[in-house]
Amino acid sequence: xxxxxxxxxxxxxxxxxxxxxxxxxxxxxxxxxxxxxxxxxxxxxxxxxxxxxxxxxxxxxxxxxxxxxxxxxxxxxxxxxxxxxxxxxxxxxxxxxxxxxxxxxxxxxxxxxxxxxxxxxxxxxxxxxxxxxxxxxxxxxxxxxxxxxxxxxxxxxxxxxxxxxxxxxxxxxxxxxxxxxxxxxxxxxxxxxxxxxxxxxxxxxxxxxxxxxxxxxxxxxxxxxxxxxxxxxxxxxxxxxxxxxxxxxxxxxxxxxxxxxxxxxxxxxxxxxxxxxxxxxxxxxxxxxxxxxxxxxxxxxx
Amino acid sequence: xxxxxxxxxxxxxxxxxxxxxxxxxxxxxxxxxxxxxxxxxxxxxxxxxxxxxxxxxxxxxxxxxxxxxxxxxxxxxxxxxxxxxxxxxxxxxxxxxxxxxxxxxxxxxxxxxxxxxxxxxxxxxxxxxxxxxxxxxxxxxxxxxxxxxxxxxxxxxxxxxxxxxxxxxxxxxxxxxxxxxxxxxxxxxxxxxxxxxxxxxxxxxxxxxxxxxxxxxxxxxxxxxxxxxxxxxxxxxxxxxxxxxxxxxxxxxxxxxxxxxxxxxxxxxxxxxxxxxxxxxxxxxxxxxxxxxxxxxxxxxx
DNA sequence: ATGTCTATTTGACTTTAGTCAAAGAATCTC
DNA sequence: GAGATTCTTTGACTAAAGTCAAATAGACAT
Lengths: 302, 302
Known about the structure:
- The structure is a homodimer.
- In chain A, the strands form two sheets. Chain A has a seven-stranded mixed beta sheet with strand order 4-5-6-7-8-10-9, sandwiched between helices. Chain A has a three-stranded antiparallel beta sheet with strand order 1-3-2.
- Chain A is built from nine helices and ten strands.
- Chain A folds into two domains: about 5-145, Winged helix-like DNA-binding domain superfamily/Winged helix DNA-binding domain (Arc Repressor Mutant, subunit A, Orthogonal Bundle), CATH 1.10.10; about 145-290, Aminopeptidase.
- In chain A, about 30% of the residues are buried.
- Helices cover about 45% and strands about 20% of the residues of chain A.
- Chain B binds a DNA duplex through helix 2, helix 3 and helix 4.
């Protein structure tokens, strides 16, 4: 990785300071108008039936603290606390109509506040701001996603492959048969690699590399969760797989794609892959690509 | 003002939620690692000798609360509290070497954190993020600036005119004589108007409208504080002055500019002003502009 | 069935953050 | 020089936020 220039760091910190001071502070104020901030935040996070366990990990709260707050909200008639049938250690909290009303009111206030803020801008400036914020969010999300090499047999790897299979099963007209997925032994150690992308602890993408008989690498199952698309994550996964190939002394990687996956084909081309004749016969393959990996993993400035 | 589309509002709130959760929370954590957040923030705000009064207004704290925190920091050897010679009711706090060290350490940590965050992006993506954040900040600042009609004799108006005079005195090769400024009576009531732009309570720009003998309006002294330039504030001031002209049944406005102020000339052209022959003889004038004001102040989408 | 683990609850705390009012000291206004 | 005003300090509070540990109850593995 290139070192981060101090200019970018200070620019980021300036924005951060400005934003939290101007907007964040404002935010806390409208939320905590009638009740303690902790309770208000909690109420806000309870959509339709969340377990305390989930809330605890999401908000990073102490178990005792959370328990008491939930009970306090229950006493105020804002939430109902119930026991889920499958595991009676857990507690499910859900909003009562009164609670729902209060959340709506919070939302209304927050909307009014933002609306007042944007009011001073022309429609063109509003659109520009929205665009800039969308770009910033996209890049911040991407920056927060870590791509890791995991065991191909791990729960996260299998979960990703299952999601991948279900996903393309709906996209391929002929459906998709899970027996086509790589086995754990093909993507472990010297044989290959399995990458999983994590966003805030949740797996949101994967990719596999395996060694072909010909001594070249094959990339398979590059997949990104629908929530994490259009961030540039597939490229990151691809980069990681190419790195893994280099580490295993494979200086050529190949892959095939289905004709329906046109975005994927465009991405492979953009990443330096060139279309080649069929190198293997494969049920779901209609296009074949290859990339010769340079010796130095030093990309120029983008 | 056009109503704010709900799309912009929800987009803004999404960003806000994401950003405060991911970045803001993180922020509080590194700051408050060794000491309470309040104290850490305070320490951070004390640059080189600030009065408690200043801190109180800047951070919006209770006088008693602040006094105690300052004394606590003093007891810890982080700051020195002194009495300024000119007013012994006030207290000046400044960092001791130990305090300075701690602030540096805070900064180092924050930088490292941001650096780690940006580390996952390519140089191109980092630049894109920095650009998006700069755009967002610029527009947020602009949105937070309120342009108000004030009395031409008010302290804020005079302060702006003084700053304006000092500013152009350095830019005009021949200097600038303050007797050329409009008098309060020229820009009050039906005669004219004086606008001041406020950012978080501080005046950061101004503009004057006065009535010419010919029954047209004249715009003068459009000025923006150096800290608030490149936000698009001059256009806002100009808009406000044109509105004021329309309200006074002046459907033509004129203005003159000095040859050195080329950005200003470009802006007038971009705002629909056309260059005309000299309508008046004036020491500092080299270019004259005019704009015919349409009956409806309804700008198309930008 | 026994032990281990997980999720919540409860009790007993502490710290932080903040408010309000009164008092003291200095400055400013007339 | 009297009175109003400004800034800080101090005392006496309160509420919110959070911590820690022990207890309880259910789930899960062997």
